[in-house]
Specification:
mainly alpha; 2 domains; 9 helices
């Protein structure tokens, strides 16, 4: 995630989360959740922005798949008609499972929604199942980000912060000691060869 996103999320809050979730933005939602855990954003608004952004994004990509997928994609994949028909039957047999699974496979939310649009799954069913699914998804990711933010604050407050800094310094010194040993051993090998 770009560091430049942090001020945008702070400034625009739920609107930034809405756009991030529309475009497949778990990192935007996690960042907003961390900010909400620190009282910088309203957690309720972040949840609503994430839910509505993901849901409208999925509806958009489903309709894109419905309008353009069957016209352009499926006509070019005629040799896979049997497999496509089988996938269509599997999705129609268990639409809730297909929608739920595609939501949680990282990187598949947008393509999954577009792919579901190419099937015979009704828009009403998709919209309903996807609404419930997006509510759950937003709650799960938001909760993970919230607890992550709370954990960071706990770790970096009080005496534990000094333990963490000391441990980090120790790792840093050990790394450079090891690097120095490797460099000296390489230099000795070269020196002995000449």
């Amino acid at each position: 995630m770009s560091v430049d996103l942090l001020p945008v999320i702070k400034e625009y809050g739920p609107w930034a989360v809405f756009i991030g979730a529309f475009l497949e933005g778990e990192l935007v939602l996690i960042t907003a959740a961390i900010l909400a855990s620190q009282g910088m954003l309203s957690i309720e608004y972040v949840w609503v922005g994430a839910f509505l952004g993901a849901w409208t994004g999925h509806l958009f990509w489903f309709l894109t798949g419905r309008v353009f997928g069957t016209r352009y994609l499926l006509t070019r994949l005629k040799r896979y008609a049997t497999q496509i028909g089988e996938v269509n039957r599997m999705i129609l047999k268990r639409p809730k499972t297909a929608i739920f699974a595609l939501q949680y496979l990282y990187g598949m939310r947008v393509m999954g929604a577009a792919g579901l649009g190419t099937t015979d799954l009704s828009f009403r069913k998709f919209a309903f199942y996807e609404a419930v699914n997006c509510m759950i998804w937003a709650l799960v990711v938001l909760s993970a980000g919230w607890f992550l933010g709370q954990t960071f604050v706990y770790i970096f407050k009080g005496w534990l912060r000094w333990v963490w800094l000391g441990f980090s310094l120790l790792i840093f010194l050990l790394f450079f000691h090891h690097l120095k040993t490797i460099i000296h051993s390489k230099m000795n090998i070269r020196h002995n060869r000449s």
